[in-house]
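Service request form, structural biology core

Requester: graduate student, group of Dr. S.
Request type: structure prediction, single chain
Budget code: on file
Notes: please return the result as structure tokens.

Sequence provided:
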Amino acid sequence: MLKQFRIPVERYVYEFPAGLMDKKGESEIKVAERELFEETGLKIKKAVSKTPFGYTSPGMTDESICYVVAEVEGEITNKNCGLLEDIEILCLNRQEALRLIKEEQKGFDIKCWLWLSWFVSDVGDVKNI
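Core staff response, request fulfilled:
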């Protein structure tokens, strides 16, 4: 996951690597591969699963998202980030994730917080999605 400075909220926010589809018809896996590499230096070894598209705020916007869960490989680096991106890359185990969601009262992308809450729970196993 990432800790990234976000100008609209004037603070660092914990979130997952994410991005927009650059081309019409681009697959979710291709977007995930591109964004993961740009923001973390990691490559997708094997896509394990993906969620269906869902709307983030259907009363306000038509923005939709999906998650790709994958096995990854490579060395973590932020050297591929854009010049204006202020990103810290984090790899957390369950104990570290639990500490983070308990200590940080602000600064989460809510989608990331929900996934972390599930991850630290007894049922948090990516093979179950």
